[in-house]
Amino acid sequence: MPEGVPLLKMENIGKEFFGNRVLYDVSFSLMPGEIMGLVGENGAGKSTLMNILFGMSVIQETGGYEGKIFIDGEEKTFKDPFDALEAGIGMVHQEFSLIPGFTATENILLNRESMKYNPLVEVFGDRFKTLDRQDMQKRAEKAIDTLGVALDPDTLISEMPVGHKQFTEIAREIDRQKTRLLVLDEPTAVLAESEATVLIDALKKLAAQGIAIIFISHRLQEIIDLCDKIVVLRDGRVIQEARTENTNVRQIASWMVGRQISGEACPDEGKERTCGDVILKTEHLWVDMPGETVRDVSIEVRRGEIFGLGGLAGQGKVGIPNGIMGLYISGGKVFVRGKEIKLNDPAASLNEGMAFVSEDRRGVGLLLDEGIDWNITFTAMQIQEKFIKKLFGGLIKWRDDKAVTKCTEDFIKALEIRCTGPKQRAVELSGGNQQKVCLAKAFAVAPEILFVSEPTRGIDVGAKKLVLDTLRRVNEESGTTIIMTSSELEELRSVCDRIAIINEGRVSGILPACSPAEEFGLLMLGHVGEGLAEPVPAGNGRC
Amino acid sequence: MKEKLQSFIENAGWPRIIIGLFLLSLFIAAPFVGVRLDASLSDTLVRVGMNGVLVLAMVPMVQSGCGLNFGLPLGIIAGLLGAVTSIQIGITGGIGFLIAMAIAVPLAVVFGWMYGQLLNRVKGDEMMIATYVGFSSVALMCMAWLLLPYTSPTMIWGYGGSGLRTTISVEGFWLNALSKYLHIQIGQFFYIPVGMYLFFGLMVFLVWGFFRTKTGTAITAVGSNPEFARASGIDVDKMRTISVVLSTVLGAIGILVYEQSFGFIQLYMGPFYMAFPAVAAILLGGASVNKASMMNVLVGTFLFQGILTMTPSVINSVMQTDMSEVIRIIVSNGMILYALTRKVMVKR
Residue B161 belongs to what domain range? Predict the structure, then answer.
């Protein structure tokens, strides 16, 4: 264990976003040359913690933070990222911030270029200095050499593979002479395995030169390979701090997801649930949804089942319902009641008795500028010709506004939508009530199969409960098969019969909801087969 | 009472109230500067009837999210082709007018369909592209008017014996075919073209009805949120095409209504700026770039045409010089400028 004054020490850090607490009392310290792994589920507070460290403006704008940050034992507050840079903190973000039309050299040295003097400077000032290309080349090469990768400094960013872009970003941080602490936010997410290995070696080299590193990743094996110690965040708290040599992947996974409220999962344990035959089947489904690519998914869902799709963000779970409902380009085969359906055609999917509550409420889910009545009844009107009066023997399909209002009022009552009336515009409702409108829209078509994507994202606790209860009730009363996507594992476990965990666009395992949380944790991180139980085929769950 | 007034102001919007009051003051001032009130009122009513359908042609495209129909000249050209062909055939009276419509509408459907295909490729930039569709179609037709083999002596250039004239009178064919139908004449100066208003009312009713059907509802949803509509199984491109076709057809009918009252068919550069007054009128009526109602059409047309009729005559009399054309241009373009800057504010 290194001795002396820690390079970075964060003490009792807390943060609240509009009354919503995301960090509680987080403390850790970091020695020079030490590599710390920071792990946690989506929403555990990793990004917020790093934003605080880096002085991002979003923190100040939302009321600052609590606690203290010490650099070399001295208390510091960073008002903006420039302060943090000044203090020697470099950050590599998940999204690249590079200029595509510039070469690696130009990007690495952007705004810190080597300059040459010329006479015009006397008249116009320093801004008329010219670039010293040779020296820049040397500096870039030096930075790249430190990383130990084969990267041509003259390549344009736009022509590079993603791995090299990542290295360029890191080289930029290295070139800053002051950089002593490097924060890497999921640097390996876009890298192939061989590239990730190179990166890890490079980071070890940097650490050997005394640069401290905070490494955020979902790939636990990398964390074990690279880091000296790990900090596990869960729901904004430090759950565990440990030296990597004393732990293993399983343990970290269970720290990440394990919650003490195990009584909450499997609420109707013992109660016999009856599920019918297979109603929905996918074979090698792929979906080209940006950020949520689905590569190869084959699942079977039974009639009357509540089937969960879990996994970390960006792994493809959200892409599955979007693909089946025809919203993004998809391929493979999807069977409903044994009949293959036409993909890439939303009308075909809707006609098969499927409905979808989108995760993108404002973008896809709602007609923001129209009334609640239109929002709820539109799909049913267009697909099933409900709320339509046929005039002149069906020649004119007249909208039946009375029926529309009646239906809307019924749903407003049933789902307790808080509004001034059926004509209130959707944009004026709160998130929870908007979500209820989305659900009502799906219920209005009386679907056999209902896809619900992230139904509780961004809504308050009360509305959350009501939404989940409504789903359960519809499942019980109408026998609707529900396929629910959620980033919150506990939520899935409390509602679903079986849960499929999606990792890197593939099913990494299907487990009954009562399986221990750490099993799910392992699957989420892509450790297939390392779990205690074998994946459960359809029908072997509680059904 | 106060609350009622407040809610009225809120519903109508300040711009309409201010311009309405200005228009009212012009009407009040008119007799004092020697402008006949009954004649001005009658003029205004005639112009509203003439332009109403052209303004109505904005509605379908606005509702489907294609923006304001700056490509209105395309529909107008279909109408012009119908008009000159009808004169070539030589049948007079109401039948001649119906023949003109019967020729113009199918042409407008074809033009509108092509125009719709183009607009589906440039989603997000519809209004800019539409403006140039209008401009370039006018330019193309400038050549066509010269070359098309029309032979009716009332229409072709006298000296060359071929090619259509820039201005063709419809007198003796179907001048006032609608306007004089059931018209009310009070005194020497005041008359209401009842037939034209009946026709305009029919068009308004048809468009209003269309937006209460299943397809009309789908088009409105496409305009409000295309992603929502797509997720509900709507063919977004098809709905947009329908709306563009509808707008173009209304443009063709609109210009025929205009001509039968105006008395002349204006070819060549005639349709070039026709879209702008219609755009200005509907925006003045309170429509936004993606929402328009029948009320917007009626109020907007009345206010815009009212101002356009009254300002030159009143101001002319005050200043004792003839600068009606200058004032007309200033007022009309100023109105568009106002309307377009207002549009930007709505967008934000």
Answer: 16-347
